[in-house]
Amino acid sequence: MLGIEQGGLQSAEALLLARYFMFAQLYFHPVRRIYDIHLRDYLRAWLHAGQYSINLTDHLSLTDNDVLFAIQRAARDSALPEHDPARRIVERDHFRLLYERNPIDIRTNIDAARAVYKAACDTFPESLVRYDSVVQRNVPIDFPVLTSDGRIVSSLDLSDTLNNVPVAKADYVFIAPEHRDTAKRWLETNRDTIIAPKEEVE
Amino acid sequence: MERLQRVAVIVSLVEKLNSKGSWSGETHVQKTMYFPQELLRVPLEYDFILYKHGPYSFDLSDDITAMRADTLLKLDPQPPYGPRIVLGEESEQVKRRFPKTIAQYNAETSFVAERLGPMRVVELERVATALYVTRELGESADCESRARRVRELKPHISLEQACDALRQVDTFIEGARTLHAAHQNVSAHA
Q: Which in A127, A143, B73, B173 has the greatest CB count within 10 A?
């Protein structure tokens, strides 16, 4: 956004709030995020050396159809190393949400989600736990506004709404569905100890 | 360096910039954070590229946004100008949890805040670009060739301004050497 006239300020507020809700409710939805993680796990196991080819011809010859076909095949063949993430995608057997960031825990420990992740890895098989942290990038709330009397001022000087547009952020800990109930009980019992901030070591 | 340790260094630097009367907009924080890493060997591990107004790190920009989400930092409107970055309510938590990291790099953050805090954005752009070029061509490169390179990268900076900025950077490099030597003396006697 380069700048706007003052008459468009409320429209700009509405757009930026809508963008925040898109991140908070859709892009950072935990189920969408865990499918990203399963897809990433699959690609790392399936692609040569865990990466897309940097050979131009090879790279351009790989299409979505090739990947989707390979996922279907791997989901049916338990001998393949990429079987588990492929099966979770195809059978909708994704990891379930164990913990998500919340303002109460953040006041105790701004890294509460990572603390839960580390403790969960010590208690359950590490390969069945995933951590995800994502933040909304580029939140353009400060832009020039041409006022009705011809001055150019910051949008933040004119709009209380823009001063309070939150930044969408999500921190999640996921666990395999077969451990979900046990893990939920474990977390309920140990939450306060787990998220208590640790003293800094050298 | 762990993410929260980097966050502690940023909190410490922003606090000192604020106290030195710096405007502390995002551009100020971006440019001043370049100096601890590239001049004073603070291992922040940000990738800086030369961008519109000098060295810029997208990773640092993401960290600053994440710190706003965690209320470690907040924007403070300053009519009729843009907002300043100031400490948010959870910054105290980081200061309590990472006293060793903050103390370890206290001299470096003070060094940067004292020298760069009072500068305006245009001055910061010049000295940060001058440091970028000095890192690129080496400290032994003469001032004239470095000034030419600054002008190649940022043609709107005059030759005189480029030379002034490079002289400032050379002074900072001398100061950084003294600081480093003092650190080594302390370590040797510890």
A: B73
